[in-house]
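Table 4 source record.
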Amino acid sequence: MFKSKRRNLIIPQAEHARLSGIIANAWGNADFERPRFSFESFVKGVTFHDRGYGRIDNYPLGEMSEDVWLEIHERSAREEFDDKEAELVVQLQLKRLVAYNLTPERTKYVAERDAFISKLAKDNALNIDNFLWADNITHFCDNVSFDFCFEQQKSASVIVKQSNDDETGIAVNYIVDGKGSIEISPWPLNCKELNSFILGYSASGYPQKLEPVYIPVAVRRQAAAH
């Protein structure tokens, strides 16, 4: 769960993941290709990339022990969707997240995911290169939503490949203002702007008492610098 940096508010991991999926669902235009497999499966995979946390979690980011954090990811890995394309999107995200700052336990997890991913792709005749390419988009959507859910100002960028033939990628920049606005440049979405919402909960009594809080989300092109 995310503890807001500006108010007494909790955003569950599942809502963060849903926002990732909302951004993924708008992906693609003349400059940015969509993945070369089922777009519906791609969006589902992005939306459930943190499925091990459940719908209402009580695991504060930055406060969990390494053991608890890794057990959540092991729980995520043990679930398996019937939609194998969505499953491959999830598994690649899990592998990437745990592959940072490797410890012996993380190294073991990554090796298990590698073996699972290879078998999943082979058994279902899935072109792994298409999914590795799409994982850059998953990474972007996840990072934007992650920073948004702390409700503090942040600017960053993620390297995204614009087409399946793009070998180097381009830095896609984003700014979150901490108050519901996200600005992106260059623009990778298929709409002029994206307006949606997620739900947080009052931190008072959470998670036993759930008092929902509506959180608007406005995604727009980054204004050109003068």
